[in-house]
Structure formats: structure tokens, C-alpha cells
Specification:
With 250 residues, this protein is mainly alpha-helical. The protein is 83% helix and 0% strand.
Amino acid sequence: MTSGKGILPAALLIAAFLIIWEAAARGVNMMFILPPPTGILSKLWQLKEPLFFEHLPATLSIIVIGLAISVILGVGIAVWMSISPSVEKAIYPIIISSQMIPIIALAPIFVLWFGYSIWSKVVVTVLITFFPITVNTFDGLKSGSKELKELLLTMGAGKKEIFFKLLIPSALPHFYSGLKVAVTLSVIGAAIGEWLGAQAGLGYFSRRMMTQFDGAAVFAPIVLLSAIGIVLFILVKCIENRSLKWRKIE
């Protein structure tokens, strides 16, 4: 876990940034373009009911469903590729190619297919988040010690024992690394989907406020989106620390 001394420099840097932002915003005096942090917090408080009780739950549902599908899909594909070289040769290039197409270009197509339902946003989130989970988990499954594998084989272990006693423990740190990247990307995926077509959500609310030239109201849901990403990252980190007690984590 990070110590208090380790957090202090980051806290001081963030405080300095916010002070400079506040001074610059008030100096420019163009609140509809560059609102000060205090103005954003004030607007966040004013809009707490629609943001927290209507749009936040809509965005969270997209993130949770998208991440759940990505974990199941990503881990499943990674395991499948690790046990079958032919599957790896067939699927791995497709997985890489899926990240070459800009998601922002595909999102409108998903809106055409699924309409303004939650699933158009979920698909965008899955496309963004499944890649780091799949690649990191696959690399982890491939990182198992050959010496330990040979030792287990000489002791009469079968494929099942090798998979559960060697490959999974080797893959877990990699899986969590991919998941920590995925949870932050899931917020971006949900926001992109909502920006391009939605009836509720923090991304949708931010885009709607742009048409009203209300800078503070545009930034308010962005603050919440950032907070969601931070909380999810910390949650995954806590789960990682608890499940990997056998491994020293700095």
C-alpha cells in the first residue's frame, strides 16, 4: 500500500494545479469556456439530484455490465489461446486488429444497430476494455515457469493440476494489471457511447450542457466520471492485494 509520504507529493501537485486553474479562470473571466474549480463544485452541488440519481446510475450500469462481459470474454479467450496454438494463431491477429479501428468511428454504427438502448454503450465499453484483459491474461498464462512445469510433470501432475497450480497463479498478477487498465478505459468507453447516442448518463448530460454553453455544467459530470475511474482502480488494487497475499506488492 502507498504510504502517506508517497501520497503527499501528488496531493501538493494537484493542489498547485487547482490553484493555478482557479486563478487563470478568474483572470480570463470566461466562465462558460473555462470555469474555475470552485464553480464546478458549486454546479455539481446544484445539479446533485439529476446527476447522482439519474445519470450516474445509468453510466455505472454500462460500466459494470461492460466490465463483466470483458472479464468473461477476455479470460475465456486467453485461456482458449493458451491451450491451443492453432486458436492463438487464428484469433490473436483479430484481437490486435480490433484495436486498429477507432472506436469513435464504430460507435455510431452500434447506435444504428442497438438504438439508444444500454447495449450500444455496453458494446463500445467492451471493445475498449476486453483487449488489455485478454492480452495481459494470455501473457500471464504463458509466463509460467518451465522448470516448475517439468517438476510437476515428474511428480505425476496432469494438465488440470498444472493449469490450476501453476498457470493460474502465474497469470493472476498479469490479469490484475490488465483489469486496472480496463476499469479506467471503461469510463472512457461509457462516456463515448453516451456522447454519441443516449437518453441518460454522465456523458450524455455533459454533451447536453454544451449546447447551453454552461461550462461548469459540462465539467461537473466529467468530475464524476474521473471519480468513478479512481474508485474502480482503487477497488481493483485492494482486491489484488487481498488475493495475492503470497506475492509482495509494492
